[in-house]
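User: Teach me something about this protein's shape.
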Amino acid sequence: LPTYDMGGTPDMDVLTEFLVPRLMDRPEKKKVIFMICDGEPSDICRRMQASYKRYLESLQKMGIILWGFGIQADLSRYFGENWSLVSQTSLASTVVNQLGKILLERM
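Assistant: First, the predicted structure itself:
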């Protein structure tokens, strides 16, 4: 994956061009994407927010489990109820706890 020195990650590019195609090729039935964000996605301007949200919703309809972790950032606009507000110090334990919950859920 490319790195971005000016901050921000182009979430849509990462999802559409890299992550989702590879994830869908995996044989596992349960597919999970965790997104860790410290603010708004860099490639999202106001006019694109609705299409970004629709894209995330389409992934969920495909059966992909999405969960956002907002480092002192409210991600409810994109993830609905599937997100956690975290600090830098609580991130690791929150990710591990949420992963455990998801993996133990029946499909």
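Now, about its shape. The chain is about 40% helix and 20% strand. Helices lie at 11-24, 49-61, 76-79, 91-104. If you'd like, I can walk through any region in more detail.
User: That's plenty for now, thanks!
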